[in-house]
Structure formats: structure tokens, C-alpha cells
Model the fold of this input.
Amino acid sequence: MKVLITGGCGQVGSHVAELHLQRGDEVLAVDNFDTGRRIHLPEDHDRLTFVEGSIADKALVDKLVGGFKPDVLIHTAASYKDPSDWHSDMLTNGVGGVNLIQAAKDSNVGRFIYFQTALTYGLHPQKNPIPIDHPKNPGNSSYSISKTTTEDYLELSGLDYVTFRLANVVGPRNVSGPLPIFFQRLSEAKKCFVTTARRDFVFVKDLARTVIEATDGKGHGAYHFSSGSDVAIKELYDAVVEAMQINNYPEPEIRELGPDDAASILLDPSRTFADFGDVEFTPLKDTVKAAVDYYRTFGAVGGYTHLKLDEEKK
Ligand SMILES: NC(=O)c1ccc[n+]([C@@H]2O[C@H](COP(=O)([O-])OP(=O)(O)OC[C@H]3O[C@@H](n4cnc5c(N)ncnc54)[C@H](O)[C@@H]3O)[C@@H](O)[C@H]2O)c1
Done:
């Protein structure tokens, strides 16, 4: 099977690439290193081709999709690291997405796999857990508006697609959200802050296994990839402390939620379990341990967030 992966050097893209390579598939990965790192993909592999470039470049996308003619296009690339940089978000998440969808249509790509943010439902969803048919209301951030635009085009495209709507995917190579920040600050014995928010953290390798099933033909349309139960951010902090095996650590300051943060993001996974079967979710403790092992070896770069945090709150 031939698979084109955008954002191939990112957390999700590189784990999916790894599984495809392990089972003998041919992979073409593209990345512009906005948040991803080249070390996340093998340097020298005879079934992997890596291209440095941006999906916002229509000529490049047409050349890659038209030349490689993938059976499946797995679109994980995303821009989110500067919430005020609407231009970059729209170029990657909007224009880049549309470039890929049009190229996939032109080259008769059999399947298109997309990754959507749970923020597409807004900060105050009408129901919690959020059902898969909940109306979209993405006006809360540039990231969520631009990500939703491409999902809407995908629905319009007539392509055979799967979109995995995600809340929090973590593990090795995770560069966004609280995990790398906790690791970095605790390494320097600095105090952290945690909000009162609750989140459903899932292990990136559990998602990657399900993505492989989707590339093989399982599922059609939108799915939540979530365990269905959430934990307080403080529990994530405690798991990082435990994985780092530190005895004297500062208790975090508990802060109220910012105006662009959601109290809880819990996605109802029942459609996923119905179509993909039961997913075996790795316990949070093991997920965090795998991330900490990665940060210890390769460093905790990033700590990006799409939230508008004040500098002093970081
Ligand atoms: N991780 C999560 O918790 C989460 C939650 C909701 C949605 N998602 C979605 O899942 C997908 C994967 O997320 P991730 O955690 O792997 O993020 P990531 O930052 O690790 O990976 C994104 C990759 O895309 C690359 N990229 C950015 N702009 C590009 C461009 N213009 N051209 C080519 N490559 C580009 C980055 O360099 C990076 O390697 C994204 O689409 C994201 O919106 C992730």
C-alpha cells in the first residue's frame, strides 16, 4: 500500500508512519518542521521518502499527490502554535487542507484520513459527553475555525474519508499542551500551574493503531478518538512527577480557567467502538512514562498551546 502522510515529523504523523513502515507499506511524508522534528522519522529507510515543504504550496502538493498516487492520504499537518497568527493557521489548516483534498480528488485517492480538534464543538458544548452529531461551533479560536474549514470541505468533497476528532493525544514526541511544559519546569525545579480543567488524555500509539485500521478501510465519516472518561490536569501533573521519580517537587498553583479554555472536553466514543471495535487504552501512568522517557532522551521542545496564555502564566 502507498500512503502519503502530511505532518510526518509530528507526534501523530510519525507514529502512523512507523506502523506503516513496519508492515511493509511505502510512505511519502511531507513536513515543514513548524512543530515537528526530523528525528521523529527514520533517517534512512528504503520505503520512506521524506520531503521538506509546506502543504500550503499547491504546486508541491499537486506534484507529490499526482506523482506518488497514494492509496490513502493521511493528513496530520496542522498549524496552532501562535494563536494570533491567523495567517499561518489559515494557510496550513485551511488552504493546505483544500490543496490536499483537491489533489486527492484529481488523483482518485481511495481514502482520506483527517484529524479534527474537539474545539470544533465550541467551549460550551450543549452536551457532555459530546455526541458525534453535536453541531459544530468553532468560533473560539483561529485553530479551530481553520481546522473546521477543512473538515467542512472534506464533507463536501465526495471523497471516502474518516475524520478523527480528538481531545488530547499525548505520548512520545508530544510538543503541545501541558505535558512538555510540566516536564521542562519540573526538570528545572520550577513551580507549575494547573487549571481546574479536566481532559481525556489518550496515548498516541493507541490512536496510531486505529488509524491503520482506517487506512485499511474501516469506518466512514466522523469519529471521536477518546476513552470516554476524563481526569483533572492535576492528575496529569502527578503522573509526570511520578514518572520523573522526583521526591522534592513544588506543589502546583491551581488557577481558574482562562476565557478561551473549556472546563471539560469529553467526547462520546460510542460510534468509534461500534465501527472499529473496542479500543484498548493504555493507562495514563504508562502514557506519561513513555512521554517522559522521550523528553529525557530528546529534550522537551515546544510546549505550544493554541490558548492565549499571558507570557507570565506560561
Ligand atoms: N495532539 C492532540 O491532542 C490533538 C488534538 C486535536 C487535534 N489534533 C490534530 O491532530 C493532528 C496531529 O497533531 P500532532 O499532535 O501530531 O501535532 P504535531 O504538532 O506533533 O504535528 C503536526 C505536524 O505538522 C507539521 N506541519 C505544520 N504545518 C505544516 C505545513 N504547512 N506543511 C507541512 N507540515 C506542516 C508540523 O511541523 C508537525 O510535524 C493535527 O492535525 C492536529 O490538529 C491533535
Remarks:
- The chain has two domains: 2-169+202-225, 172-199+230-265+283-304.
- DSSP finds nine helices and 14 strands in the chain.
